[in-house]
Predict the 3D structure of the following.
Amino acid sequence: MTNPEIDFNKMDGLIPGIVQDARTGEVLMLGFLNETSYAMSLQSGYVTFWSRTRQKLWMKGESSGNRLRIVTAATDCDNDAIVFQVEVEGDGLVCHEGTVSCFTKAIPVAEAENAEVANAR
């Protein structure tokens, strides 16, 4: 099996990397990878991102101990995004705010039935 050719050109050299718990399926976080961090992730077996704010590579959990050990990795149909299924090492709190997942802030969404009625007007 050969690695698919990842398309880093669409987003100025970056691709989104979705991190999902391999056991529960819960989405834990989203980060961005460049070609170097992608290669490091595959080589080390731990998710490594490119920090857009700090402009540097960072292995998730290198300071907190909550490293993301890759169980599987897959690209989407366009080869411009990756899903990593991982086992979280450490205490399992992936988010820097002290939660398991970074996705904790609910956004109210209209029910589908009400949205259809509103769109018909």
Notes: The chain has a mean pLDDT of 92. The first strand starts at residue 15 and ends at 21. The CA atoms of residues 39 and 48 lie 9 Å apart.
